[in-house]
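Hi V.,

You were right to ask for the full record rather than a summary. Here it is.
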Amino acid sequence: MPTKTKSRAKGTGVAQTKSQILNPKSSQSPNPKSKIQTPKSTTPKSQILNPKSYSSPERLQKIFAELDALFPKPECALLHENPFQLLVATILSAQCTDERVNKVTPGLFRKFPAPRDYVGLPQAELEHEIHSTGFFRNKAKNIIGAATRIVNEYGGQVPRTMDELLTLPGVARKTANVVLGTAFGIAAGAVVDTHVFRITHRLKLSEGKTPEKVEEHLMRLVPQARWVSFSHQLILFGRKICDARRPLCAECPLATLCDAPDKTI
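Predicted structure:
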């Protein structure tokens, strides 16, 4: 008899615990392991990721209009007198500001203005000239290699196609797009530097993890006639307004179109 009585009491205790779990009003501390089924969302994933139609034609037109008003005639900031000098300056601009490059290239181009001047040039001599731009050893190697290939393979003229430019040492799509767009007026793609990469993410125009992916997205969203100017506009916008650390959101004409998490207003 004592054993049966104890068993019934234990059974009653278990029943009470289940009742408390199933009825939230009867318990202030529900079992955290209890499985509560919630209805699955029927909202398409695309709408969750893009609730404000960031790439809608209306929004894009507003962005274009504001950038046109700010920078009606955007130009490349790198000083140069011909396509080859632009190529060299763009190679030097990797991991370096245009301002610093523009302090180096006038003297460099006075000494070595043309591709043939770099053929056979001791790498250490070029390294000395470009030292302040950073990564000078690799840059010097690439510039000499690119100039030598231009002389030997292209008759001393900078090639005018993406495929040919990509065969030059030190030239990736960003550099090739700068040269094609600025020197030759050829819209082969969109320039994606650190400014363009940052701003396209802040404006939710791309979630690409690489410059190549961002360029791919911009080429789908932006009319080809705007590829060259739009890239220059974003670069200028990044320098003057949409700073990496302290964006001037209070002065930004795109503020109403932006909901970046690091927005300052």
